[in-house]
Design a protein that fits this description.
Shape: globular
Strand content: under 5%
Order of helices and strands: HHHHHHHH
Radius of gyration: 18 Å
Largest sheet: none
Distance between the termini: 56 Å
Structural class: mainly alpha
Length: 189
């Protein structure tokens, strides 16, 4: 049997923790559950990450990074409306195929608010920096148009909310979204 390196174990912890935190949030997730999902002991988990907060922060950042990568890949070589629809369709696929990433995004936003309410601003600053990278990632392909970027991200947050609440794709609440955001591809005009 091949042994995993510490870096490979860190990766497996991040993947497992994304599912656990996504489903149960920061406070509802135990490090024991994460360790069990990965197949390591809690002491080993804490050799990889110094604290539960560090695990949550790593997972939150990974979630944002992977979303940026999806947008970058989808919009490569495109701009304007073509980029918009390609990114919307790619994001719809991402959250349909990996619902834990959507759930983790939502948990991250809640955790920022909770940390800020407790006077802990470092996590929020870090997440906001990641979100600004996300902003820039979609901003440039959309022609560096602030209004287009804001609209795209606003639609994205609506998609997050509707998907998190479990509205089925055929429900009327989806009808006002871009076809590509509904996962139906781009309409021919």
């Amino acid at each position: 049997m091949v042994r995993m390196s510490a870096e490979e174990r860190r990766e497996s912890v991040i993947r497992a923790a994304m599912t656990e935190f996504g489903q149960k949030g920061y406070y509802g997730t135990s490090t024991e559950a994460i360790a069990k999902r990965v197949g390591v002991s809690q002491p080993y988990l804490f050799r990889l990450f110094p604290s539960k907060k560090a695990i949550f922060a790593a997972v939150s950042h990974r979630c944002i990074e992977e979303t940026c990568e999806v947008f970058e890949e989808a919009s490569r070589g495109l701009e304007g409306e073509e980029a918009l629809h390609a990114m919307a369709a790619a994001y719809a696929r991402l959250i349909a195929e990996h619902p834990e990433k959507l759930q983790m995004q939502m948990q991250t936003y809640l955790a920022v608010a909770a940390a800020e309410a407790e006077g802990e601003h470092e996590f929020g600053e870090s997440v906001r920096a990641g979100w600004m990278k996300l902003w820039e990632t979609v901003h440039l392909p959309l022609g560096a148009d602030v209004s287009e970027t804001t609209t795209f991200l606003a639609y994205g947050m609506l998609v997050n909310t509707l998907a998190a609440m479990g509205f089925p794709p055929e429900h009327t609440v989806w009808q006002g979204l871009y076809l590509s955001a509904r996962g139906e591809g781009r309409s021919e005009e």
